[in-house]
What we know:
Blueprint: E1 4-8, E2 12-16, E3 19-23, H1 25-35, E4 39-46, H2 48-52, E5 61-66, E6 71-76, E7 83-88, E8 107-110, E9 128-132, E10 138-140, E11 146-148, H3 155-160, E12 163-167, H4 168-171, H5 177-183, E13 186-190, E14 196-200, E15 203-207, H6 220-235, H7 238-252, H8 264-271
Parallel strand pairs: 1-4, 1-8, 2-6, 4-5, 8-9, 9-12, 12-13
Antiparallel strand pairs: 2-3, 6-7, 10-11, 13-14, 14-15
Helix pairs in contact: 1-6, 6-7, 7-8
Amino acid sequence: MNPRLLSVGNFCLDSIDGVYYLGGSVVFNAITSNKLGVNPSILSKGQINTIQSFKEFCDVDVRVVPGIKDTVFLYENFFEDRIQYLKSFSGSIKSEDIPEELHHTDMVLLCPIAGELEPLIIDNFSGMVGVVLQGWLRGFQNNGKVFPLIIDNLEELFTKADFVIVSEEDINGLDILCDWINLCDVFIITRGINGVTVFCGNEEYNIPTINVVENDSIGAGDIFATSYIIRFFETKDPLISARFANIAAALSVRAPRFTSIPSREEIEFFLK
């Protein structure tokens, strides 16, 4: 039986130039999982009809904690200096919202988008757990504008996760990076066209990516995280996994949204 990957975090609607698109890390994770031959599950809070209306989720185990509204992000200057606003929030996901049968899922990605997960939620899972930090590094002004903010108790994640992933953009200007790295078994910084840096075993490894023409980078970090945990589950090798995920993320930016998420065969072609 194929392994299963559970992604925990809220899906959202992205408003770009007046058009709403389904988004959120869990969405990109689920579609990428299917592409790589792994059974996807997601646990989110919001309105179940929203996510079920998208055909991409006909083969996904979707668990939605009922909410009276969905999480909505508004984007300004999407193709330039992108500005993001939180216009609606569906609410937090608590430990008691996690069905018992999900506690022993093979792989789990904790990937909030607006601080909807408490760090202690990691204690509910016995399988391989990866942490994507972005949603824990966001604050929101009164008008919903997103700004960098570090929440409390992140150390709970760093000491318990099998690996932690964060983008260079999300930690720009933060002064505690060395502390984070020292607490983690594997700490990964994604750097866009400059590849990734992997910290593990008191060593630092810089892994370049491949050159592609970028069309849309939305979701690339999520595709990296999904590809990484799947390959790490298979190999237990952080560097092999990073190379695999690096190529997956690079190939995904060639076309908008979900349309160029690569298959395993496409990724392996570029690894030769």
